[in-house]
Design brief:
With about 475 residues, the protein is α/β, with parallel strands linked by helices. Helix content is about 45%, strand content about 15%. Strands 5, 6, 7, 8, 9, 10, 11, 12 and 13 form a 9-stranded mixed sheet that branches. Strands 2-3-1-4 form a 4-stranded antiparallel sheet. The protein is globular, with a radius of gyration of 24 Å.
Length: about 475
């Protein structure tokens, strides 16, 4: 990407407009700063910064766009921030310099480009200096130049020093490394590496409309390399990600984006034709769609979420799939005044959690999540379990799921529920799923992030009593 001088802020003229490299670094720095300072998710921060960068490109009449580049630099920087920041930020010797979140974010983004991209280092430094001015950090432009040039001279020693600490070497918060060490000591290094890996684009094929093998042939006909996922008949992965608009069958709902581990929810609950099924905490609707697709006949699905905007997304996703469900906004921790009183045959409770099993897809989790958050998640998860259980008929089943790898949100929650609920028993793993890399975890089963998919926990609870 070419680097050009840009128009300075506050209307001061310059001979040339900002180059794409400058816009990418400045946009990524703003997005990273929003995550660091405001606690925004990467998705929300990226949406704002991509729109601003695209507008800037249109104003200077440049061709193409930095959308994908801003996303790549932002997510890459967030993925490695806890390794890069300790290596470069100590070089900010000027008093108060480290307190400016935009400056910290810009340096981290630039160092990410130096370490993890193929761009010429001199181009990255020049673009970072220009980006500082674009960010309103004109007085720090010289400092950015000096810090990055010093980093280039000393980078081997700086990174070696940072890498002496296990958490820093793998760019994880120390509290999370210790929690993972306590839960999964033998798998710790594998877990940390998996969290920093780039996950494949995973798809769920609607087997009621096409076979996975046929869909793979469709992909191949378009020059897209894909493969089936062992043990998950609905899942295929692509070697290289592409926009969903380029996926055959996506617009008409024959295929959806969903990780193989998440697809197991529908396969595990296995709704039967004619059953009343509740998808609790249903947004954004991926699992609701999967439940409707996997049933061998019509089911009466009710999808509940406490957020109106997110519930709207459920409706949009089901419309694309050509599927229908009853959508209700409700808090399942409160009184069931939304419920018609007719018990459900099966319930999927995909409970809100720390999302520590999907860090590879959402690296901002490493910066946003705190150790103190886990107890709050666990308390709400137990409330949700207790709120859903009375809605289940005797002889019915409830599948508890999280995308966490922390036992405090998984085994501990289910154990506490079982201790207070004598009519609840744990069902075994369904035979079709027995060959998956499931780790016993208390009353349930844990999938760890890796080649097989994201990190998910599942525990299927059976309600004793006479089946209808």
């Amino acid at each position: 990407m070419r680097n050009e001088r840009h128009a300075r802020p506050h209307g001061r003229p310059s001979s040339r407009p900002p180059g794409t490299a400058t816009l990418v670094l400045s946009g990524a720095a703003r997005a990273v700063a929003a995550v660091l300072e405001e606690g925004q998710s990467a998705d929300a921060a990226l949406a704002a910064q991509v729109a601003e960068a695209m507008e800037a490109l249109q104003e200077v009449q440049q061709q193409g766009g930095p959308r994908g580049a801003i996303q790549a630099v932002t997510l890459g920087t967030l993925r490695w921030y806890l390794r890069l920041a300790p290596a470069v930020l100590p070089l900010l010797a000027r008093p108060g310099a480290q307190t400016d979140v935009r400056l910290r974010a810009l340096l981290a983004c630039a160092v990410h480009q130096i370490e993890y991209s193929s761009h010429a280092q001199a181009t990255t430094v020049a673009a970072a200096v220009d980006a500082a001015r674009l960010l309103g950090l004109e007085r720090a432009a010289g400092l950015v130049n000096a810090v990055l040039r010093r980093y280039l001279r000393e980078r081997v020693a700086l990174l070696a020093s940072a890498d002496r600490d296990l958490a820093t070497r793998h760019a994880h918060p120390a509290w999370l490394v210790e929690a993972l060490r306590a839960a999964w000591p033998a798998e710790l290094e594998q877990l940390l590496a998996a969290n920093n890996a780039h996950p494949p684009l995973a798809l769920r094929v609607d087997l009621s409309r096409t076979r996975s093998v046929d869909y793979l042939q469709e992909l191949a006909a378009r020059g897209l390399a894909g493969e089936a996922v062992s043990g998950v008949p609905t899942a295929v992965t692509l070697s290289h990600p592409v926009p969903v608009a380029e996926l055959p069958g996506f617009a008409e709902g024959r295929v959806s984006v969903q990780d193989p581990s998440a697809q197991l929810a529908a396969l595990w609950l296995a709704p039967l034709p004619g059953e009343r099924v509740l998808d609790a905490c249903a947004a954004p609707g991926g699992k609701a769609g999967a439940l409707l697709e996997i049933a061998a006949g019509p089911i009466a699905l009710t999808a509940v979420d406490n957020d109106a905007a997110r519930l709207e997304r459920v409706g949009e996703n089901l419309k694309r799939l050509g599927r229908e469900a009853k959508l209700l906004q409700a808090d399942l921790c409160g009184p069931p005044d939304w419920w018609d009183g007719v018990p459900f045959d099966a319930i999927l409770l995909d409970a809100p959690c720390s999302a520590t099993g999907v860090i590879r897809r959402h690296p901002d989790i490493k910066l946003l999540r705190r150790a103190a958050d886990i107890a709050g998640f666990a308390a709400r998860q137990l409330l949700l379990l207790r709120g859903c259980w009375p809605l289940l008929r005797p002889g019915g089943r409830l599948l508890y799921a999280t995308c966490s790898v922390l036992p405090a949100e998984n085994a501990a929650v289910v154990r506490a529920f079982l201790a207070a609920t004598p009519e609840a028993t744990v069902a075994p793993v369904p035979e079709p799923l027995a060959g998956l890399p499931l780790h016993p975890c208390g009353p349930g089963w844990q999938l760890l992030p890796g080649a097989a998919g994201d990190g998910f926990y599942y525990a299927c609870l059976h309600k004793e009593g006479e089946a209808r």
